[in-house]
Amino acid sequence: MRHLLVVFGLALFVSAAAQAEPTTDRLRTLQQQGLDAYKAGDFAGCAKAFAETLTMRPHHPRLLYNFAACSAKAGNTKNAVDALNEYAGMGLIAGVEKDEDFASLKGNPGFTSALNKFRANGTQIGRSTIAARLTEPMLAEGVAYDAVGRRFFVSSVDERKIAQVDASGRITDFVPPHRDGLLGAFGMSIDAKRDLLWVSMSGVAQARGLTEQEHHSMGVIALSIADGKRVARADIITPDENTVGVIGDLVAAPDGEVFATDSILPKIYSISGPSTEMRLDDWLQSNRFRSLQGVTFSPDGKTLVAADYGMGLHFIDRKTKAIHTIDFAGGTTLLGIDGLTRSGSTLLAVQNGVAPQRVLAISLDASGSNIVAVKVISANDPNIPEPSLGTIKGDEFCVVANAQWSRFNDDGTRKADLDPPHIACIKLH
Questions:
Q1: What percentage of the chain's residues is helix, strand, coil (to nearest 5)?
Q2: Domain count for the chain
Q3: CB of 121 within 8 A of CB of 356?
Q4: Cα–chain-centroid distance for residue 69?
């Protein structure tokens, strides 16, 4: 589940922390000052405010764009052009040609250079193949590949079910709609050692047929990978839907412990294996978390790696719970990452919070807690118009290619009809 970080035209970037820290408060204040100055025609004041935000959040696409726009309006061509070229240098695209804020830059060589980079960034990178096509229109979010059973599991948020697609392409319901009180189904993780499929779930507005209590609920469920029957379940039920979080993804560790992320509340939960008394425990809460998404482990299992839509990647020592955050590496931003998994020493990230939406291969160092290289392995692929979460299938990374969150309003109503989802795979080697 995601919200686009890069929306063209001057706008406010909001870090949605449940407990604001002084830096966050200052950042929000500066942005508001910049927007107020822009509206008042004080473009120099606007540029000054956004210049200060960039000292706090360097390379942030939204802030860079705002700084460039204000600088151009203020007549500071060099600052505007430099900011746009930095933005384009991250491999992103922006509709600056249609933005009147940059009208004064037309014909400037530096501006022309930025435009050429933006155009180049709009070309296709990588080639995917369609591995599976479902036939029922639905809001698909998660995918997991069962190597033993040679099948994909696909979770549905709106239909509240889990479909399976076998090697022949045959589609059946692994978990039929609403069975065992399944909420909107999000990320999944296979624990092959224990023959379990772990599923994160939440009573979001897009999920259909929820009871009043289910609207206030979120949790995880462990299913037998053999037949989809419930093995264990843990829920958190809050007094009202305004205080409930969204458990959107999880990962099962080799030792059986499961970690789940909350995209609304700044928390990571832990579950110590399936049992009749299984519960979700608050493993780590931090005001450094903004909107947690995908989660995986370092190769040695000692470091938990959690994607944060507004902050980048958090590397968290499982023993000490110390947090090391990286939001820029390899010359590009790591904001806007949704799905996150690992193949060997490489993190595979679905970055759908920027334009173009893309897939990154992020190489880790020997410690598994630092980044040595970032490569875009898929972007502007017509097979992958709106990716969400992904899974490893042999030497391929496979994603839900058309999740279709963009076809829903925030209240869960549909803006447009849905298409059947499909799974697209990208060769890794």
A1: 20, 35, 40
A2: 2
A3: yes
A4: 27
